[in-house]
Amino acid sequence: MIADRALARRIEADEAHGIASCVEAYGRATGKPVATLGIGGGWAGYAEGIDFLNLAKGVAMTGPVSAADLDRLEAFYFERGAPAQVVVCPLADPSLLALTRRGFHVQEFETSLAVEPRALTAPLPAPGVRVDRAAPDELDLWGETCARGFFSEEAIAAVLPAFRAFARLADVDVFLARVDGVVAGAAAFGMRDGLAGFFGTSVLAAHRGRGVHRELIRARVEAAGRRDADLLRVTTLAGSGSQRNFERWGFRPTYSRAVLVKGHPS
Predict the structure, then answer these.
(1) How much is the pLDDT for 43?
(2) What DSSP letter does each residue of 137-186 carry, written as one string?
(3) Whose CA is closest to 174, among 213, 223, 212, 125?
(4) For the chain, give me the number of helices (H) and strands (E)?
(5) Which residues contact 144 (CB under 8 A, 6 or more apart)?
(6) Quick check: 212 and 177 in contact, CB under 8 A?
(7) Which domains are present in the chain?
(8) pLDDT at 194 over 70
(9) Are 41 and 62 in contact, with CB atoms under 8 Å apart?
(10) Which residues of 154-183 are buried (b: 16+ CB within 10 A; e: fewer)?
(11) What percent of the chain has pLDDT over 90?
(12) What per-residue confidence (pLDDT) applies to 266?
């Protein structure tokens, strides 16, 4: 698998679709202010109070962006009182680098990883860990479990509605992991045009180090195979334990992205 522009366009289009879908799902579920903006071939999303959804993805993957495009992107966020955040793929059109001349700076890096099903390598199963697709009456449980694996107790109340909304996305399958019968983690994947995008891999603190993360990957790999996925992808923080776990399954880094941010003028 070669990390060329065609592969990057496919991955980034899926990322952009995902941010727009999640923002819209949050708005439907809560009635809170949300907005999306098609920009430069990608999507920008805004959800009141949910910082991790206030992102633009897939921008400049299909061609150049103009100064007017970038003006619209900044205005989209600033008019809503939020900082402008753009996830930049290194294979985007170079015109997107104008962000650095407009006061944007690097906030963090993340890694895009992908694998074709034929290149997967399955580690040994973790004893005592069972993963099943969440039942319809477990969707709120999935949302709470996933949120608690990522956020502190103080932040849970604010982000929980978003995770409960994600669990109900029409093109997403959600999974719960249990250790000796006790809920220990959660994860999801979405399917779009043969591409399985893994996200939300979350393990509760009390159950880490038991192989839960590994088994959440296994369940999705198997489910994606049953749906004839031709490519699996995931985004992780650069150099994280999550990245290492996916690499053990045969996922390979395709490229690193920079998350650029420009604070609200106020």
Answers:
(1) 98
(2) GGHHHHHHHHHHHHS-HHHHHHHHHHHHHHTT-TTEEEEEEEETTEEEEE
(3) 223
(4) 6, 11
(5) 156, 160, 163, 164
(6) yes
(7) 5-111+256-262 (no CATH), 117-229 (3.40.630.30)
(8) yes
(9) yes
(10) eeeeebbbbbbbbbbbeebbbbbbbbeeeb
(11) 97
(12) 76
Residue 112's pLDDT is 97
Q: Which two tokens stand for residue 46?
A: 């805004």
Buried/exposed 44-68: b ≥16 CB within 10 Å, e otherwise? bbbbbebeebbbbbbbbbeeebeee
Query: Residue 41: is its pLDDT beyond 70?
Result: yes
pTM: 0.95
What confidence category does residue 3 fall into, taking pLDDT thresholds of 50, 70 and 90?
confident
Give the separation between CA 48 and CA 256, rounded to whole angstroms. 28
Cα 246 to Cα 155: distance, rounded to the nearest angstrom = 27
Query: Which two structure tokens, joined as six digits, stand for 246?
Result: 């996916």
Q: CA 199 → CA 19, 73, 90, 206, distances in Å?
A: 12, 25, 21, 21
Which pLDDT value is given to residue 1?
A: 67
Interval 54-105: pLDDT, tens: 999 999 999 999 999 999 999 999 999 999 999 999 999 999 999 999 999 9
Alpha helix (H) ranges present in 167-260? 212-226, 241-248
H/E segment holding residue 72: helix 67-78
CA–CA separation, 41 and 33 (whole Å): 23
Residue type, 23: V
Tell me if 22 sits within 8 A of 242, measured CB to CB: no
